[in-house]
Amino acid sequence: MAAFKLRLNLPHAGTVALRIEHFVQRGMRSGSDAEAALLADVHALTNLLLPVRDAGENPEGPEGARIAGEAATIARRIVDAIEKLAIGHDRLGQAVRNLFECLELGEEGAKLSLRAGENPESLLRP
Question: What is the pLDDT of residues 89-107, one digit of tens each?
Fold first, then answer.
């Protein structure tokens, strides 16, 4: 699958995580346990990435790789929940793809974004 290959950019990943948080909150409907679990994961993602966003640069050495790996793990759970709750849409899917691109996982993001609702015919896709 075609994908953008970007360098690790954790500060921008923090910005994208805030977009995901916004879209997920707008999609909440029932206040169910599943929605609460999704929101907890979204908050975990933003809490992980916001200090790096505020710093404005990737951490030195292995710390950046650790944060990127943890962010990807959380983001995969988020996509699973978005799909199960059927709250995905094009902009949310684009944000998911952008997040994974920032984590140097563009190909995975291109696939997961479709599960989160991105339009496969979007002109923004690679």
Answer: 999 999 999 999 999 999 9
Q: For residue 5, is it within any domain?
A: no
Residue 112: which H helix or E strand, with range? helix 106-115
Q: What is the dihedral of CA 81, 82, 83, 89, to 10 degrees?
A: 180
> How far from the centroid of its chain's Cα atoms is residue 69's Cα?
12
Q: Hunting for tokens 């059927």 — which residue is that?
A: 86
**For 51-69, what is each residue's pLDDT tens digit?**
999 999 999 889 999 999 9
* Domain span holding position 20: 10-52+61-115
Q: What is the DSSP letter of 58?
A: P
**Inside any domain, residue 125:** no
Domain count along the chain: 1
Q: Is 26 a domain residue?
A: yes
Residues in the chain: 126
What distances in angstroms separate CA 9 from CA 33, 61, 99, 100, one per listed residue? 32, 14, 9, 10
